[in-house]
Protein backbone atom coordinates (compact mmCIF):
# COMPACT_ATOMS: atom_id res chain seq x y z
CA UNK A 1 0.00 0.00 0.00
CA UNK A 2 1.27 3.46 -0.88
CA UNK A 3 0.16 6.77 0.61
CA UNK A 4 -0.45 9.70 -1.73
CA UNK A 5 0.49 12.76 0.32
CA UNK A 6 0.62 16.43 -0.56
CA UNK A 7 4.16 17.62 -1.26
CA UNK A 8 5.12 20.39 1.17
CA UNK A 9 7.18 21.97 -1.62
CA UNK A 10 3.98 23.09 -3.37
CA UNK A 11 3.69 25.90 -0.81
CA UNK A 12 6.02 28.65 -1.96
CA UNK A 13 5.37 31.35 0.59
CA UNK A 14 3.77 29.59 3.52
CA UNK A 15 1.47 32.59 3.87
CA UNK A 16 -1.62 30.53 3.08
CA UNK A 17 -1.39 27.34 5.14
CA UNK A 18 -4.31 25.64 3.39
CA UNK A 19 -5.16 24.49 -0.10
CA UNK A 20 -8.20 22.75 -1.55
CA UNK A 21 -8.83 19.57 -3.53
CA UNK A 22 -10.37 20.98 -6.72
CA UNK A 23 -11.35 17.67 -8.31
CA UNK A 24 -10.51 14.01 -8.65
CA UNK A 25 -9.75 12.63 -12.11
CA UNK A 26 -10.33 9.06 -10.86
CA UNK A 27 -13.12 7.51 -8.82
CA UNK A 28 -12.73 5.79 -5.48
CA UNK A 29 -11.97 2.15 -6.24
CA UNK A 30 -10.48 2.86 -9.68
CA UNK A 31 -7.19 1.24 -10.65
CA UNK A 32 -4.36 3.58 -11.66
CA UNK A 33 -0.84 3.12 -12.98
CA UNK A 34 2.29 4.92 -11.82
CA UNK A 35 2.38 8.37 -13.43
CA UNK A 36 -1.39 8.74 -13.89
CA UNK A 37 -2.91 12.10 -12.92
CA UNK A 38 -5.22 11.39 -9.98
CA UNK A 39 -6.44 14.76 -8.74
CA UNK A 40 -6.03 18.51 -9.01
CA UNK A 41 -5.36 20.76 -6.02
CA UNK A 42 -5.27 24.54 -5.66
CA UNK A 43 -2.49 25.97 -3.50
CA UNK A 44 -1.74 29.68 -3.21
CA UNK A 45 -3.90 30.28 -6.30
CA UNK A 46 -2.05 27.78 -8.52
CA UNK A 47 -3.40 24.45 -9.77
CA UNK A 48 -1.27 21.32 -9.40
CA UNK A 49 -1.93 17.79 -10.62
CA UNK A 50 -1.37 14.98 -8.15
CA UNK A 51 0.37 12.05 -9.84
CA UNK A 52 0.17 8.41 -8.76
CA UNK A 53 3.58 7.39 -7.37
CA UNK A 54 2.81 3.71 -8.07
CA UNK A 55 -0.03 1.63 -9.41
CA UNK A 56 -2.93 0.28 -7.40
CA UNK A 57 -6.57 0.57 -6.44
CA UNK A 58 -7.46 4.09 -5.26
CA UNK A 59 -8.93 4.73 -1.82
CA UNK A 60 -9.74 8.45 -1.65
CA UNK A 61 -9.18 10.01 1.78
CA UNK A 62 -9.60 13.75 1.03
CA UNK A 63 -12.80 14.42 -0.92
CA UNK A 64 -13.32 17.14 -3.52
CA UNK A 65 -13.45 20.63 -1.93
CA UNK A 66 -11.65 19.37 1.17
CA UNK A 67 -9.19 21.75 2.83
CA UNK A 68 -5.66 20.38 2.77
CA UNK A 69 -2.38 21.27 4.45
CA UNK A 70 1.25 20.45 3.64
CA UNK A 71 1.76 16.70 4.02
CA UNK A 72 -1.98 15.90 3.99
CA UNK A 73 -2.95 12.36 3.05
CA UNK A 74 -5.02 12.55 -0.15
CA UNK A 75 -5.42 8.88 -1.01
CA UNK A 76 -4.01 5.41 -0.60
CA UNK A 77 -3.07 3.02 -3.39
CA UNK A 78 -3.75 -0.60 -2.51
CA UNK A 79 -1.83 -3.37 -4.29
Write the layout of secondary structure elements.
Elements: E1 2-5, E2 19-24, E3 31-32, E4 37-43, E5 46-51, E6 56-60, E7 67-68, E8 73-78
Antiparallel strand pairs: 1-8, 2-4, 2-7, 3-6, 4-5, 6-8
Task: Tell me about this structure.
With 79 residues, this protein is mostly beta strands. It has one domain: Beta Barrel (OB fold (Dihydrolipoamide Acetyltransferase, E2P)), CATH 2.40.50.100. It is 0% helix and 48% strand. It is built from no helices and eight strands. A four-stranded antiparallel beta sheet has the order 1-8-6-3, with no helix packed on it. β4 and β5 form a beta hairpin. It comes from Methylocapsa palsarum. InterPro entries: Biotin_lipoyl (IPR000089), Single_hybrid_motif (IPR011053). Pfam families: Biotin_lipoyl. Residues 18-77 form the Lipoyl-binding domain. This is Biotin-requiring enzyme.
Amino acid sequence: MADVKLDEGLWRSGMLPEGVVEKWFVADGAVVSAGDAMAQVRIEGALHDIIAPTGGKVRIVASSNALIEPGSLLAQLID
